[in-house]
Design a protein that fits this description.
Blueprint: H1 2-11, E1 35-37, E2 40-42, H2 43-60, E3 64-65, H3 74-84, E4 91-92, H4 95-99, H5 104-111
Parallel strand pairs: 3-4
Antiparallel strand pairs: 1-2
């Protein structure tokens, strides 16, 4: 994703690039948006990874990051990390706006990331 963001910004520097998700579900075999420890989603380690992911998208040139996980405290942690690293102008898209869009269902299908357990 970061390579694609860089390539787009290189070719069309003024285009607004929003990363469709700063989530982990598409990278897991269980489809959940978090790191699993002892059969449970671990909030704090997941937030740390979400922060790293969002910052890497901003560093690649994303103008908007869009967390879609449900981890407690992730938006504040992402905002703080972005600001501390000089990405004060990088926006954070609300999960509600993304979930209600026509892109959410197709994303889950394309990423084959429906949750495997409850």
């Amino acid at each position: 994703m970061q390579s694609a963001i860089r390539a787009i910004k290189r070719e069309v520097p003024d285009v607004l690039v929003g990363h469709p998700t700063s989530c982990l579900c598409e990278y897991t075999d269980h489809g959940h948006c978090g790191i699993v420890i002892d059969g449970e989603i671990a909030n704090d380690p997941t937030v740390e990874q979400l922060v790293r992911t969002a910052v890497s998208h901003a560093a690649a040139g994303a103008d908007i990051v869009a967390p879609s996980d449900m981890m407690d405290g992730r938006v504040g942690a992402i905002r703080q990390a972005l600001d501390e690293r000089g990405f004060e102008q990088t926006a954070i898209m609300a999960y509600a706006a993304k979930y209600c869009s026509a892109f959410y269902g197709p994303f889950r299908d394309a990423a084959a990331s429906a949750p495997a357990f409850r």
